[in-house]
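Lab manual, section 2.4: Encoding a predicted structure.

Procedure: take the sequence of the chain (245 residues), apply the prediction step described in section 2.3, and record the output as structure tokens. A sample record is shown.
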Amino acid sequence: MTTVGIYVDGPNMERGLWDAGDVAILERIGTLLVDYGSELGQVVEGRVFVDEATIWRTDRTRADYERRGFALVESKSFRHIDPRTKRVVFGKSLTDPSMHCAVVDRLHDEDCPDVFVLATGDKDITIVLDYIYEHGKKASVLGEANSISSFLITKCDALGFGCHIVQLVARSLRAQKAGKAPPVETAAGELKVTDSEGRRVSMESYLEDRNKRSNQLNPNNISYWRARGYEDRPADWEHRAKKRR
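Recorded output:
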């Protein structure tokens, strides 16, 4: 029987889904991850990596994690003085390295899961993906539509690992603009990328389209000028860029 372990970058999912307005998904993220993992095999463990400064936007998120059997792993968060407010605030934490080390360490256990479900959009996890691949295990990455790293998507594709979005792209973008949470179904089948009509699209198409749109809106990128009829960036591009702002 195929065994599955679910490892979650708590702060990453909190920020991504909250900023996108997908509160309904955020409050059921634990359930969605277990449902998805169960399609890959038997879920034998689940860990959510947080730090001492983690902000739970809604208590239902933590309750859902705990109800579905996830263990919360807390790490250190470092304080610094905000130069603007002169107040002591939390900054960088050990959440990411804590999660990375846990996965790599698990690879050396005899009862290591056959498949790792990694809920994060950070590109740093790509180093861990290499280790998983070298140990003959499989992985599936789940990220938030608006913040998942393009490099991470490319890496998953290169290794033959799954890489999915935890909400419909079109819904997420509408919610972000409206500033509110849209309705959500609970089917694990939503863990895919879709176009504005809800039709499934490949990761390659999603990545190409997102990068294209991003570059064409950036005056510092040659794609910005080529999209506007220029073969190369004109000599007075700085002046033109300022006029368009």
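Check your result against the sample. Residues 181-191 have pLDDT under 50 and may be disordered.
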